[in-house]
Design brief:
The chain has 179 residues and is α+β, with helices and mostly antiparallel strands. 33% of the residues lie in helices and 15% in strands. The protein has a four-stranded mixed β-sheet with strand order 3-2-1-4, with helices on both faces. Pfam families: DNA_binding_1, Methyltransf_1N.
Amino acid sequence: MEKVVYWSAFEHDDIQLYLAASKKGLCYVALPNESFETMEQWVFRHFSAPTLVESDSFLRSYADQLHQYFQKQLKIFQVSLDLRGTPFQVSVWNELSRIPFGITCSYYDIALRLDNPKATRAVGTANGKNPIPIIIPCHRVIGKNTLTGFRGGLRFKETFLQLEGIEHYNVAGHARFNF
């Protein structure tokens, strides 16, 4: 069965993202340093025989909420999601969705919420594979008051944290994510 995945480019100031959604809901947000090809590859890995269709109108409600977020007019996203991951990844992403706007927590905190305190590294890995950043706020997860890895680079993680008024962290992060 063919699966249609709709996509659209989103721009706000100097930030450009690609959004993708199925009829079930938003399934992918490419971070500012990720290309259309990155999104396209993700879609082809997670859908069976997909057809990508550009549609600003299909993704308008998602884009509108992102614009409101970037304008500091929205703190809680109200969107349908089509989560594609392992059961553990989905459980982590659901916990990330419970982190309130303007609050950070650690990977260990998430592992505790999942009743698995030894899963801190696995939580970090699942966090890094979050296909819907910003909406599922993986940027709100930091090391012990220190910025750590972020698929979009620490500069964008810091941008998202500052947008939410979060300033209590050390900017020293893993060098691999300093782009």
